[in-house]
Amino acid sequence: MLKILISYKIQFILCMKKLIVLIFILVLVLPSCKDKPSGNTAIVKGELNHVRKNKLFLVELDIKRIRDVDSVVLKNGRFELEVPLEEASIFLLKDGEVHYLPLIIKPGDVIGISGDSFGDPASLTITGSNPSAMLKDYEERFQQNRSFVDSLVLLLRKAENQEALLKKRDETQPLYDSVAEDQARFAKSIVEKSPGSLAALFLLNQRFGQKNLFDSEKDLAYFKMIDSGLMANIPRNKHSIDHHIRMESLEKKRKADREAAIRLATGKKAPELSLPDTSGNPISLQSLRGKYTLLYFWAAMDVFSRKANADMKKFYKQHKNKDFEIYAISLDKTPSMWKHAIRMDTLKWVNVADIGGMKTPTSRLFNVPDLNYMILLDPEGKIRYKGFDIKAVQDIIGAK
Fold first, then answer.
1. Could you tell me if residue 312 is inside a domain?
2. Fewer beta carbons within 10 Å, N or C terminal of the chain?
3. Same domain, 386 and 314
4. pLDDT truncated to tens, each residue of the chain (400 aa)?
5. Residue closest to 347 by CA, chosen among 270, 294, 287
6. Is the CB of residue 372 less than 8 Å from the CB of residue 308?
7. Element containing residue 388 per DSSP (H, E)
8. Considering 99, 127, 155, which residue would you say is the last residue of a domain?
9. Owning domain of residue 45
10. Which helix (H) or strand (E) holds 382?
């Protein structure tokens, strides 16, 4: 009996040891389960040697706003973020306000980021997301080109006087243009490789300095390419839908522009128009027939319009007694501001308004692209000039 009890005791101890070992293994294994996202989540993790303030922030570029998602403090250079999301979206991983890395994240992704410095895209490696890796390559090229531009700026700062500055600016402008074009070509090469990716959509809205990489007119083919790609790949995604609506709006504008080009062609009679003056009395454009009439679209709320008023007053003083009139159309949003500007700037020409901003019926009727736009009509009401150059108007008036 004693031998049996001892045998049971030994077996119990062996079983307990096995159980302890099993528990220990489970303790080691369970944390690694986070490597596989659960439900509608993704994981962004990595190891970085140099991060500003040792902290990273994740924000989402939502349709109408930038949304804070999460932040993490690095421990020995390591970090991990679990990202809840319903669909693929565009994110920025930031170290505050200095450096950022664009990421395309979708549910189920496990994105790894490693490198020497978060501020140096060339030192980074991204795994688990091909679109994010493509954007990393874009940021690397962007930093290279920006460094070159910075060297051009330093060169300009060394100019000894205004004349030398203008000369150096003329010399460096072609270099800047070539660098901006290089960045645009690189972005377009990525779009061509993956037009159905949100990475392509992100690049579509990027700039290099003050210059858009993609122009909705010259590069319309790329806008359409991305729209077709996203609609084929992720048609129900919020970013895909938003871009598709944008494309429909662009197409409507192009159609309106084509119709306006025919309606407002040089030599055609201007459309009939009657708008209220500051007292509310309607003044028709046709009442000015027999004179050269300059339609001048402006707004009191616009600082450039207020500066242009000073030049326009000098021009008006020179020509007002030569069968010439200005029919200034305010596109302000508040009547009080418009009337106040007329008094302050002492504007003596015909002042009328279509209150409501750039999308008023008058603005659409004359296809006004921006404030300070001008249309010159001859005494018969026919269009002689459209544009922003007051000198071109003066040449026509002076030659009559």
1. yes
2. N
3. yes
4. 434 334 444 454 444 544 444 444 433 434 444 556 666 899 999 999 999 889 999 999 999 999 999 999 999 999 999 999 999 999 999 998 789 999 999 999 999 999 999 989 999 999 999 999 999 999 999 999 999 999 988 888 887 787 887 888 888 889 999 999 999 999 999 999 999 999 999 999 999 988 899 998 899 999 999 999 999 999 999 999 999 999 999 999 889 889 989 999 999 999 999 999 999 999 999 999 999 999 999 999 998 999 999 889 999 998 887 789 999 999 999 999 999 999 999 999 999 999 998 889 999 999 999 999 999 999 999 999 999 998 999 888 876 5
5. 294
6. yes
7. none
8. 127
9. 33-127
10. none
Q: Classify residue 54 by burial, with Cβ atoms within 10 Å: 0-12, 13-18, 19+.
A: middle
- Of the residues 232, 261, 290, which one is the last residue of a structural domain? 261
C-alpha 257/C-alpha 113 separation (Å) is 47
Q: How far is CA 306 from the centre of its chain?
A: 27
Strands 373-377 and 383-387: antiparallel
Helix (H) or strand (E) holding 81: strand 78-84
**What's the per-residue H, E or C state across 204-260?**
HCCEECCEECCCCCCCHHHHHHHHHHHHHHCCCCHHHHHHHHHHHHHHHHHHHHHHH
Q: Is 136 helix (H, G, I), strand (E, B) or coil?
A: helix
